[in-house]
Amino acid sequence: MTTHGGHRPVFCTIVPPHLLDKLARAEDPALAGPARRSLEHDAFQRTRRRMTTVIGAPSVAPPSGAPADQPYRTIYDTAHSQDLPGTKVCEEGAEPGRDETVKRAYDGLGATFDLYLKVYGRHSIDDNGLPLDATVHFGEDYDNAFWNGEQMVFGDGDGEVFLDFTIAVDVIGHELTHGVTQHTANLDYFGQSGALNESVSDVFGSLIKQYALGQTAAEADWLIGAGLLAPRVTGVALRSMKAPGTAYDDDMLGKDPQPATMDDYVRTGRDNGGVHLNSGIPNHAFYLVASALGGYAWEKAGRIWYDVLTGGELREDALFSDFATLTVKAARERYGAGDELQAVQKAWERVGVRAV
């Protein structure tokens, strides 16, 4: 068992760096310019996050008298600057106004809060009522969204490859789940533990979308970031949990490189050891479990994953096999030796991960 008292926050973006790297090398300045600026923004924020890791992130308490069963949301607008958090434009209980980006950010924070509270009994990201802050209209044509350890930040996209990053509620849920992981398993952001960190965010991001839409596992699209790609892009999303490696195949972006099984595991020193690539393997395992069990994926498959994330036994440097073993244990402890356990065991077998 490991303790997670340090809560080391990491800088996590929804668009993998390999996509922005490819766009930054494009001959078309309409593609290369925004990608290069986005990479520069990310590098700056990553350095800022490391400094916060050293000095410690500020502790934020919910407002006095805030209801325990409701979120406390504040939306800021940087008006295309990089100065966080920006100007306050909406807070809990107020009308978001006419800005659709503000409305989507506000609603997405609420959808994330609802799933964690109503399904898993978790009171906000830290389970202690952490206020949910988000900044919109960050940077100039910024091609990303991120959790910086304290708040959400959304770019508007460049309009050529990426659209407004508040469009996809699963992106909002994905990034906020990095905060949940920060306050629970605190998975190292490198190699297989980093890929698990990304995968957990994809899992719960997808569940947040499914819960908000009332979709069963069979009805869900299992896409991460559907609606983010501009019309000129040949693709449907950033990632597919149902079929990793099929989300896009485009002249500008290339072909989706995510593996679905360990047979195609990517060994690389880039992207923190391929955290956005190899996350496709545990992603696919979760999809297989949810599909085998049917019904609403957040009820059984999601509960097993949540038990592992919050159970205190997941090491910060966990490998896929460690996570798989704990999901088998969690399934057995919660549901016995029935369909749930068999679904978990078979899913990990199909993706080539050995659960002890």
Short description:
This protein is an alpha+beta fold. 43% of the residues lie in helices and 9% in strands.
Secondary structure blueprint with pairings:
Blueprint: E1 12-13, H1 17-24, H2 29-55, E2 73-77, E3 87-91, H3 100-120, E4 132-136, E5 145-147, E6 152-154, H4 169-183, H5 191-213, E7 223-224, E8 239-240, E9 249-250, E10 254-255, H6 271-278, H7 280-293, H8 301-310, H9 320-335, H10 339-350
Parallel strand pairs: 2-4, 4-6
Antiparallel strand pairs: 1-5, 2-3, 5-6, 7-8, 9-10
Helix pairs in contact: 1-2, 3-4, 3-5, 4-5, 5-6, 5-7, 7-10, 8-9, 9-10
Account of the 3D structure:
The protein is of the alpha+beta class. It has two domains: 12-183, Elastase, domain 1 (Roll), CATH 3.10.170; 227-350, Orthogonal Bundle (Neutral Protease, domain 2). The protein is 43% helix and 9% strand. It is built from ten helices and ten strands. It has helices spanning 17-24, 29-55, 100-120, 169-183, 191-213, 271-278, 280-293, 301-310, 320-335, 339-350, and strands spanning 12-13, 73-77, 87-91, 132-136, 145-147, 152-154, 223-224, 239-240, 249-250, 254-255. The protein has a six-stranded mixed beta sheet with strand order 1-5-6-4-2-3, covered by helices on one side. It has a two-stranded antiparallel ribbon with strand order 7-8. A hairpin with a 4-residue loop joins β5 and β6 (152-154). α3 crosses α4 (169-183). The protein is globular and about 55 Å long.
* Radius of gyration using CA atoms only: 19 Å
In total, the number of domains comes to: 2
As residue ranges, the low-confidence spans are 1-7, 50-59
What gap, in angstroms, lies between the N and C termini?
A: 17 Å
Beta content: 5-15%
Strand element count: 10
CATH topology of the largest domain: Elastase, domain 1
Kindly state the mean pLDDT as a whole number? 91
Biggest β-sheet: strands ordered side by side in the sheet: 1-5-6-4-2-3
Report the sheet with the most strands, covering strand number, pairing sense and barrel closure.
6 strands, mixed
Shape: globular
Order of helices and strands: EHHEEHEEEHHEEEEHHHHH
